[in-house]
Amino acid sequence: MAIVELKVPSPGESITEVVIARWVKNTGDIVEKDDVLAEIDSDKATLTLNAEESGKIEVLAAEGDTVNVGQVVVKIDTSFKPEAKATVEAPKVEAKKAEPAATLTPNHTPASTSYATGTPSVSAAKILAENNIKPTQLNGTGKDGRITKQDVLAALSNGLPTAAEVLSNSWKGGREKDRTKMTSLRKTVAKRLVAVKNETAMLTTFNEVDMSAIYAIRAKYKDKFKEVYGSNVGFMSFFTKAVTEALYHYPAVNGMIDGEELVYNKYCDIGIAVSAPKGLMVPVLRNAELMSIADIEKGIKDLAVKARDGKLTIEDMTGGTFTITNGGVFGSMMSTPIINPPQSAILGMHNVVDRPMAVNGQVVIRPMMYVALSYDHRIIDGRESVGFLVKVKEMLENPSRMLFGGKVPEEVLLGL
């Protein structure tokens, strides 16, 4: 009998311990090589633990346990071999058909329960989140009561819950409390946010942007853009392009403090704040100053998909020089974003609202967005912060400026 020990991999430098977020496989399961066994949370990213060999596994740590990097958490007995795939087809499908359909009702207690009872699989959890359904509303028919993808799909096919069922999930007037252990990522985010407030001279300056020009470009070219590049063109790509051009004119906004030195980056690695199941993530778009709108759009989409699927790596989230966050997608009207250290500034986008504006002596309705720049006053002066935000505004309201270093074509023609 050959036993293979699986150790916790290192998520990156300076990380010495991680948390077992979820076991995808359980003790006694027979797995194949490269199967995902567990999800591991560190203070920077979520990783997966994969089987190095095929065989029967023995789990040595529970969900929620904090374990050291290099610690053995799984043993694989390679004397057990997975069944041939050819034997798993028709009989298995028929067996599934015979199972009772899942319903959107609270779980009953199975005769034999374990920590897996009522826990959704990775694919099931994704569908539950997308449809705003709680795991407690389903009966799991998987092994040990685990909720499978088929359970969720069957429940959805049975229709939406009735009004009485919806009301039964609202407040009931009790005095109970739920306590949940903070994840490593959440604890790190909390420490960093407090550190920013305590260790930087953070200020925020505001402006507003008339989005009419961007709206017009998107309306005129959205179909052709999608035909050529296979994706829609969003606000974030325009803002990213405008930011990279503005950073060229105001390099201090792209800089940072390192000890007693000021570091001015001559490239733009733009952090794009995205909402993920594990919380707010800020993956980085490398050398965004060299990208076209289409390249930026593709890069942002790829990073967002990786964040949604929990596949962001440490490399994806380190080394940014400036960050953009879009609270507008959640309906935010105005906010003061917090700097993402060691960067010195962050741009906050907000929702677009039709408002009456005075244009050439006439009151007209324009789609307006408030923008906010939070910055570290130790490295960025007020003149630079305001000038940077005005430059971003100018390029968004006259997008041709992005092609000519922040100038309008007539200024370039006249050599001004």
CATH superfamily membership of the largest domain: Chloramphenicol acetyltransferase-like domain
Mean pLDDT metric = 82
Unreliable segments of 5+ consecutive residues? 87-103, 105-111
Percent helix range: 25-40%
> Structural class of the secondary elements?
alpha+beta
Q: Radius of gyration over alpha carbons?
A: 26 Å
Q: For the record, give the distance between the C-alpha atoms at the N and C termini, rounded to a whole number.
A: 80 Å
Characterize the main sheet: 7 strands, mixed
CATH topology of the largest domain: Chloramphenicol Acetyltransferase
CATH architecture name of the largest domain: 2-Layer Sandwich
Q: Which series of helices and strands comes N to C?
A: EEEEEEEEHHHHHEHHEEEEEEHEEEEHH
Note the beta-strand portion: 15-25%
Tally the helices: what do you get? 10
In total, the number of domains comes to: 3
